[in-house]
Amino acid sequence: MAQTPSIPKGTRDFGPEEMIKRNYIFDTVRSVFRRYGFLPLETPAMENLSTLLGKYGEEGDKLLFRILNSGDYLSRVPAEELFAADSGKLTAKISEKGLRYDLTVPFARYVVQHRGEVVFPFKRYQIQPVWRADRPQKGRYREFYQCDADIIGSRSLLNEVELVRMVDDVFRALGIRVTLKMNNRKILYGIAETIGYADKMTDITVAIDKLEKIGIDNVNAELREKGISEEAVALLQPILSLSGSNREKLGQLTDVIAGSETGMKGVAEAGAILDYVDALGVEVDLELDLSLARGLNYYTGAIFEVKAKDYAIGSICGGGRYDDLTGIFGMPDTSGVGISFGADRIYDVMTGLDLFPADAMSATKAFFANFGGAPETAALKLLGDVRGAGVAAEMYPDPAKMKKQMDYANRRRIPFAVMIGEDEAAARQATVKNMATGEQTAVPFDRLANYLQEA
């Protein structure tokens, strides 16, 4: 007996019903991106490893899926290296490409590669899958979709404010109550500088970023393992536990890191964003969270993370300012800022909270029953008219028993059934059944398309 096929752990199949829901998310996010003036872009699933490596930090590099070179990729590897059991050196010889880890680094590569064609500030959106060799668990997948929007070529904080407004619009449209957490990497540098370890900012931020996942005791243990002194760890504790309003937190922070010029720039930037958001009346719950670090190394300014209020899952959206990313590819002084909506986690939240609207759950609005013979021909003609009016409609392919046809329509969650039998064909009136209420209405053939449009 043949073994039942399977898919890799951390990946998922999406059947028609799931895809309808996912497309609802994609369409909602895409419509907001377009309203804000972002242009579509796609990049290849695979990139050269030279493009990807070193952009996500040591831990991120470990999560890259590498692609073996084509052909006899071992033939050029010296025997001593082949049997040295050094996977790092061997991988470098047999793999030159990898699946993209996110959409931001490929975007920066694109901007540098096509700099002569791009109009700055360049606003692009991108909705594509990414891959990470992570340990699969609830809300964490090895293949997942990101919905990114980035603005590159401008240092204005108005761009950060626009991203905040966009977050508000997207989640309001999807019906998800969220908290938008904000911090600034300059503030984190100021904290590292204040406790005497500016040179270990990356180690500190990587540890701090795990605070919610592993707790303060484990974060402190990791800091000690990275060589942070007990005194410095103690100095860090009150900073990570600041309380009060956003303004009060900034005030307390100012007292702590006043000696750090870079840190105070971060405080000023955070304050300016809060001023804009307050003045514009943006309703999203915006929280200054000094434990937010976002471990990706390329962030340099404001950083954001979005959490669902009513469903336990990791962040469903995140992003921030990056000043040096294109510089890595030979195009310095081109600052950017972006936000990424995690479609898969958003899907899980909306499914868990039953937030998908009922009228978005069927691709077909009208189902035409098949009575065969002359009525079938009349129904086919009307089916074409209805589709021409922009109404999604289909007809059962066989003149089967009516119970079987109606069961099909019910299982497909099609809201309206159109029946054209001999009596309807003679009277030139279709019987339209509302599948939710059971109510039936006689509709003249020449009014059917309009009726279904308005229903």
What are the SSEs and their pairings?
Layout: H1 16-35, E1 39-40, E2 46-48, H2 49-52, H3 57-62, E3 66-67, H4 79-82, H5 87-94, E4 97-99, H6 104-113, E5 122-131, E6 143-152, H7 158-174, E7 178-184, H8 185-194, H9 201-208, H10 211-225, H11 230-240, H12 246-257, H13 261-280, E8 285-288, E9 302-308, E10 317-322, E11 336-342, H14 343-352, E12 366-368, H15 373-388, E13 393-395, H16 402-411, E14 416-419, H17 422-427, E15 429-434, E16 440-444, H18 448-454
Parallel strand pairs: 1-5, 7-8, 12-13, 12-14
Antiparallel strand pairs: 2-4, 3-4, 5-6, 6-11, 7-9, 9-10, 10-11, 14-15, 15-16
Helix pairs in contact: 1-7, 1-14, 8-13, 9-10, 12-13, 15-18
- Level-1 CATH class name of the largest domain: Alpha Beta
Tally of structural domains: 3
N- to C-terminal distance: 51 Å
What is the CATH architecture annotation of the largest domain?
A: 2-Layer Sandwich
Beta content: 15-25%
Main sheet specs? 8 strands, mixed
User: Radius of gyration in whole Å, from Cα?
Assistant: 28 Å
